[in-house]
Specification:
Length: 338
C-alpha cells in the first residue's frame, strides 16, 4: 500500500520578511492618517475670503474733497476712483520685522498664488518716502500707528490690497535657528558692527557657514555692512528667509514643532486667524522654494533723506505679481517725490 506524499513543512517567514511587512503596514497606516488629516484640515479650515475687487481713490494731494453725505446716506464714491478686479486664489501678507526698541526694521510684502503654487517676496526699503497724515516721511516711521497703519500706507503706495499682516520680533529668528540646530547660509560680506545702546554686537566672517541664533539675528539686522545700506541688507534678508524656510520644513525638525509653536506665540503677532494659517499651510505643501519663490525689491535711488522709488520699475514689478485680472495702470500707484 502506497503512502501519500508527505507535505513539506510550512516555512516560517524570516525576520527580515516580517520586518518588511510590518514597515509596509505602518507606512500604509501613516499614509491614511496623513490623507485623513489633510482632508480634515481642508474641511475645517476653508479657503479665506477676500474682496473680489479693490477701489483705489486718486492721490490725496490732487483729489477734490468727496461729496458730502445727504439725508443720512453715505457719501458717493469719488468718480475718479479706480476699480480693479482681483484674481481668484491670490493672497497678500505684509511681513514686519520689529526690534525691541520699537519701529519696523524690516518691511516685506508676500504674495501667494495658491492655484499656481507660486509666491513672491518683495522688500520695501525702510527709508522709502511716502505721504502719510498729510506729510512726507519714511515708511518705517508709519509703524508708530501700528501694523494696520503700515498696511494702509503700502496699499496706498502700490495699489495692492494687504489681506494680512504679521509682525515678528527679530529675536524670533535667533530662537528658531537655535531650535533647528542652526542654518547653513552664504554670508555675502564681512559683518562687523557694534551698538551699545541696543546691546548689539555683530561679528561675522563672509562665506558659507552654519549660523547659530545670535549670528542669524546679526545677519538680519546688519545695515551698515553694505555700501548701499538698506538695499543690500534687504537682499540678504530675503535670501536668509528662504534658507531658513527650506531648512526648517524638514522631517528632522518634527520633534521641534511644539517649541517652534511656543516661539511663534511669543514673538509673532498677526491678524490672520488660526483657520487661515492652517489653510495656507496645506496649500504650501509640495512647494519647491528653489523654483516657486520669486524675490525682489522696490527699485529707486537715494536722494537724502529718502529712498525715492522709480515709478516705471515699480509699476512693472506690481504687474508681475499677478494680483489683478487686468494690467494695473500707473494711476493706481501713489508714489511721491518731495
Amino acid at each position: 500500500m502506497s503512502r501519500a506524499p508527505k507535505r513539506a513543512a510550512k516555512r516560517k517567514p524570516s525576520f527580515l520578511a516580517r520586518l518588511a511587512k510590518g514597515l509596509y503596514i505602518t507606512l500604509f497606516i501613516l499614509s491614511l492618517i496623513v490623507v485623513a488629516a489633510y482632508a480634515a484640515l481642508n474641511i475645517f479650515a476653508p479657503k479665506p475670503t477676500v474682496d473680489s475687487q479693490v477701489t483705489i481713490p486718486p492721490k490725496a494731494e490732487t483729489s477734490a474733497p468727496l461729496p458730502a453725505a445727504t439725508d443720512g446716506l453715505p457719501a458717493s464714491p469719488d468718480p475718479d476712483s479706480l476699480v480693479l478686479k482681483r484674481r481668484d486664489d491670490v493672497f497678500t501678507c505684509l511681513l514686519l520685522g520689529v526690534a525691541d526698541m520699537g519701529g519696523s526694521d524690516t518691511i516685506m510684502l508676500g504674495v501667494f498664488d495658491t492655484q499656481a503654487k507660486k509666491a513672491s517676496l518683495i522688500s520695501i526699503p525702510r527709508d522709502t518716502v511716502v505721504r502719510y497724515n498729510g506729510k512726507y516721511q519714511k515708511i518705517n516711521a508709519t509703524y508708530a500707528g501700528g501694523p494696520e497703519a503700515v498696511a494702509e500706507v503700502v496699499h496706498d503706495l502700490l495699489g495692492i490690497p494687504v489681506d494680512y499682516w504679521v509682525t515678528v520680533n527679530l529675536k524670533a529668528f535667533s530662537s528658531i535657528v537655535d531650535q533647528i540646530g542652526g542654518v547653513y547660509f552664504d554670508v555675502p560680506v564681512r559683518m562687523d558692527y557694534k551698538d551699545p545702546y541696543q546691546d548689539l554686537v555683530i561679528d561675522i566672517q563672509p562665506g558659507y557657514q552654519l549660523l547659530d541664533g545670535k549670528k542669524a539675528e546679526g545677519v538680519m539686522r546688519c545695515r551698515s555692512c553694505y555700501a548701499n545700506a538698506d538695499i543690500g541688507r534687504t537682499a540678504t534678508q530675503r535670501a536668509f528667509l528662504t534658507a531658513l524656510a527650506k531648512q526648517t520644513i524638514t522631517p528632522s525638525n518634527v520633534g521641534s514643532v511644539t517649541s517652534l509653536i511656543n516661539t511663534f506665540s511669543q514673538y509673532v503677532r498677526s491678524n490672520m486667524s488660526l483657520n487661515d494659517m492652517v489653510w495656507f499651510g496645506t496649500q504650501a505643501i509640495g512647494m519647491d522654494l528653489d523654483t516657486a519663490l520669486n524675490t525682489g525689491s522696490l527699485e529707486g535711488e537715494w536722494i537724502s533723506p529718502y529712498w525715492q522709488l522709480d515709478d516705471a520699475a515699480v509699476l512693472e514689478l506690481v504687474n508681475s505679481l499677478g494680483i489683478y485680472q487686468d494690467p494695473v495702470p500707473a494711476r493706481a500707484l501713489h508714489i511721491v517725490h518731495p
